[in-house]
Design brief:
heterodimer, A: 370 residues, alpha/beta, six-stranded mixed β-sheet, four-stranded antiparallel β-sheet, 13 helices, elongated, B: 286 residues, mainly alpha, 11 helices, 75% helix, globular
């Protein structure tokens, strides 16, 4: 108790002390949504070993590293929720806390309405986790044996386990390798087995940490389709996904949280996040070479900015407008000056644009060691 | 409860697969027979060398040290093997985190793995004793059906598995909070127990100030009891000469009960510490 008070004063004050003790505070009041995942001011601080402090620059050589800083998130049941961030942003730390693998330093984290500190044993039968790009099992076992083993740890009956294993192997096209030892599989195939292991226990809430790392395009696409169907199949299933792939988050997630240096910078739907980036509707217009109608575009009312790239085969115009309707005047202006428009399309912002706008750097720009 | 037992059975099955399925069955059998047999025959060579140099080395020493050394395989397999389970599952297979987040408590998983190791070690002990019986006349005269006390042997083995499991839990808990170099800790403690439990020589040979430590270790009573159950009521050692089977089992039960309480507390404390410090999925090696 004294140790917890010292290390986790907030939690000790709340009376959430040890695994297995009852939470004295109600998890849900009448009329309140029971979130599938809920965190409130969740913080995790790692103590840096003395030996590692010497290996980093003086300005970073603090005794402690804040991996998560007051993270507050709410994920609805049935939601496919994405976490986007650079390496070391805190995504994996958050997943570790939510899967009861790591203690928070302070704050609250609840999974399916249960506290990760005091009710970890109750959370575990309801969840599972898949971490991408690493070992997926005991190399000495076959694919089928590995999946069977984990089904047994979760109390799945033999018949049901067999059915689920066959189904999952079908999904990831691994049926013909069911009796191959894990150690004989390639990295991509191991990742598929790892993926199956996460689903074989039919969890209510699933945590996927970079699930498509190391997979070929076809397999990644099949897995994305399966994830989408899996969540939609039963409304109480929830999935939290971390990914480096913007396209993956954009395609799959109902909502996305952008996390950087342990802090959540934004939480919204991918569409809303992208909309935040683009204040001015932007169009790209391609003109025949030698056309000069674009020179007077700056004088058209409602044109915010325009940029030109003249090439030997075409002139590329990028025009941002104060309102979308102004595009009609722009087209009229160009056509009136005798230039021919080859193509015209609206430039849609990407999730990566939103990420860069919010974080000030791209996904590959920053590497923060945890 | 049924679900829990099924999960433990799965962990035992996994343990057996990991221990036995790494090569062809015939090669595994050879490994199972030859490795312990060679280790024990090494002791026979030392005994022969010592006897040729001094007539004071008594002939009864050979069955004493051979049987003691064979039985110590179970101590090593179960008590120190569990540390290796933690290291290999966490650092090599990287599966410990998935076991940790499963509904099966880590402790129960380790019980399953300990059972597999007990089984493998027990097979090794039987084969080593059988090999010794075939090769060494001294052992043939010491190990006879008439001398074997099956009921006491079963009692010692049953309590012994509990006791060794408890030692294993304490070490596994400690290893959970240390890196892969922590196997040195287990190996060091194995060496100490080997020295202090009267495995290859009687405890009265040790300096007087070390002897209280020997009587503090449940392995001392366990090894003495198993030897007596296998070779008849008398053994080479004098330190526990006046003790009956009942006395030995009582001492073993008492020390095992104490050890179980300590193991429970130590393992729980280490589990909590590993969870707080994020050591459950750490990898510290190459």
């Amino acid at each position: 108790m004294s140790l917890l008070k010292r290390r986790r004063p907030w939690i000790a004050r709340q009376g959430i002390v040890r695994l297995g003790t009852a939470n004295p505070f109600p998890l849900k009041t009448p009329g309140m949504i029971e979130w599938a995942i809920f965190t409130d001011r969740l913080t995790r601080v790692y103590r840096r070993p003395r030996s590692r402090r010497a290996a980093v620059p003086a300005n970073e050589a603090a005794k402690e590293l804040v991996a998560l800083d007051q993270v507050s998130l709410s994920v609805r049941p049935g939601e496919l929720f994405g976490l986007l961030g650079t390496n070391g942003a805190g995504k994996t730390t958050l997943i570790k806390i939510l899967t009861t693998l790591l203690a928070p330093t302070s704050g609250v984290a609840r999974v399916d309405g249960l506290d990760v500190v005091s009710q970890a044993a109750l959370i575990r039968p309801r969840i599972n986790m898949v971490s991408g790009g690493e070992s997926c099992g005991y190399g000495i076992l076959t694919v089928r044996e590995t999946l069977w083993l984990f089904s047994q740890l979760y109390g799945v009956s033999h018949a049901e386990a067999r059915r689920r294993i066959d189904h999952m192997l079908e999904v990831v096209s691994l049926r013909d390798r069911a009796d191959t030892k894990i150690s004989h599989l390639s990295t991509g195939l191991r990742q598929k087995v790892n993926f199956c292991r996460g689903f074989i226990t039919d969890p209510k809430i699933l945590f996927l940490d970079e699930p498509t790392v190391g997979l070929d395009v076809t397999a990644a696409r099949a897995i994305r389709a399966f994830i989408r169907d899996w969540v939609r199949e039963r409304p109480d299933r929830t999935l939290l996904l971390t990914t480096h792939y913007m396209m993956e988050a954009d395609q799959l997630c109902d909502r996305v949280a952008i996390i950087d240096r342990g802090r959540v910078l934004a939480v919204d739907t991918p569409a809303a996040l992208k909309k935040r980036v683009q204040r001015y509707p932007t169009f790209r217009i391609c003109l025949t070479p030698g056309a000069d109608g674009w020179q007077s575009l700056g004088r058209v009312p409602g044109v915010h900015q325009h940029a030109v790239t003249a090439g030997p085969t075409a002139i590329d115009l990028k025009v941002s407008l104060e309102a979308e309707a102004v595009i009609g005047d722009v087209v009229q202006q160009i056509a009136g000056s005798g230039a021919r428009i080859l193509t015209l399309h609206k430039v849609e912002p990407t999730l990566e644009d939103a990420f860069i706008e919010l974080c000030g750097h791209g996904l590959s720009d920053t590497e923060i060691g945890e | 409860m049924r679900q829990h037992l099924r999960a433990i059975r799965a962990a035992t099955w996994l343990g057996w697969q990991i221990e036995s399925n790494w090569t062809d069955p015939w090669l595994f059998f050879l490994y199972l027979v030859l490795k312990p047999l060679c280790a024990s025959l090494l002791l026979w060579c030392m005994f022969v060398a010592a006897r040729s140099m001094s007539a004071a080395v008594p002939g009864e020493l050979l069955p004493f040290l051979y049987v003691g050394n064979a039985c110590f395989m179970i101590v090593g397999g179960v008590a120190f093997g569990l540390s290796w389970v933690i290291i290999s599952d966490r650092e090599h297979y990287q599966m410990l985190k998935y076991i940790w987040i499963s509904p099966l408590p880590l402790r129960s998983y380790l019980i399953g793995r300990a059972l597999a190791r007990s089984l493998q070690s027990a097979v090794g002990v039987v084969l080593t004793l059988a090999g010794g019986w075939l090769l060494l006349p001294e052992l043939r005269s010491a190990l006879t059906w008439e001398r074997l006390d099956g009921r006491w042997l079963v009692a010692y083995l049953a309590v012994g598995v509990l006791m060794l499991g408890a030692v294993g839990m304490i070490l596994a808990g400690a290893v959970l909070n240390l890196g892969r170099h922590s196997m040195l800790l287990s190996e060091g403690i194995a060496g100490l127990i080997y020295l202090l439990s009267g495995v290859v020589f009687p405890v009265e040979v040790l300096p007087e100030w070390l002897r209280p430590l020997c009587f503090f270790l449940p392995t001392t009573y366990w090894l003495e009891g198993v030897r007596r159950a296998l070779m008849g009521g008398t053994t080479f050692g004098r330190a526990l000469e006046g003790w009956s089977h009942g006395d030995l089992v009582s001492a073993l039960l008492l020390s095992t009960a104490l050890l179980l309480v300590v193991a429970h507390a130590v393992f729980r404390w280490n589990e909590q510490r590993a969870w707080r410090q994020g050591r459950v999925d750490q990898t510290t090696g190459v």
